[in-house]
Specification:
The chain has about 160 residues and is an alpha+beta fold. The chain has 2 domains: about 35 residues; about 110 residues. It has 2 helices and 7 strands; from the N terminus they run H-E-E-H-E-E-E-E-E. It has a 7-stranded antiparallel β-sheet. A hairpin with a 3-residue loop joins strand 3 and strand 4.
Length: about 160
């Protein structure tokens, strides 16, 4: 005679159900992360970033250049990469929500909705750099229209500190 372990049916179903819920939840979380993360074809690393400014279609002064370390985490938020900040370290910028994000192997476009402005971003991507144009339109009568050209060239890996 075989020695079978007898468990109540509810207990076996409960364990299987819990495992199913855990597996399904993990899969759903992974898929939602993939769907939320943009497909930016950039490599993390050190980038030399040059920003050129136009105010009301008039070029302003000389371009500003800075060095940035773009991390793998930054690749999840286009505003961390394609912003016009040249201060070092970067200032804490106002949080803007990214909408209508579209990427291909070589291009990107999106809208950034901020409290006092809307920013349209469009540009090209490559494994060794990027070039985007940021067109800033103020909301209401809160300022003037601006245009920034932001170019980044990867120069190597970020140095660890």
């Amino acid at each position: 005679m075989e020695n079978k372990q007898h468990r109540p049916l509810w207990r076996m179903t409960s364990i299987r159900g819990c495992l199913g819920v855990v597996v399904a939840g993990s899969l759903l979380a992974a898929l939602s992360t993939l769907a939320a993360a943009p497909n930016l074809k950039l490599e993390p690393g050190k980038y030399v970033v040059t920003v050129t400014y136009e105010v009301q279609e008039q070029r302003q002064n000389e371009p500003r250049t800075t060095t940035r370390c773009i991390t793998a985490r930054d690749l999840n938020d286009p505003e961390q990469i394609f912003n016009d900040q040249t201060s070092s370290p970067p200032q804490n910028a106002e949080a803007c929500s990214v909408k209508s994000l579209k990427t291909t192997n070589r291009s990107i476009s999106y809208e950034a909705d901020c409290a006092n402005r809307t920013v349209h971003v469009k540009g090209t991507l490559g494994s060794d750099g990027f070039s985007v144009v940021r067109t800033v339109t103020p909301k209401g009568n809160q300022g003037v229209s601006l245009k920034f050209t932001v170019r980044g060239e990867r120069t190597g890996d970020c140095s660890s500190r």
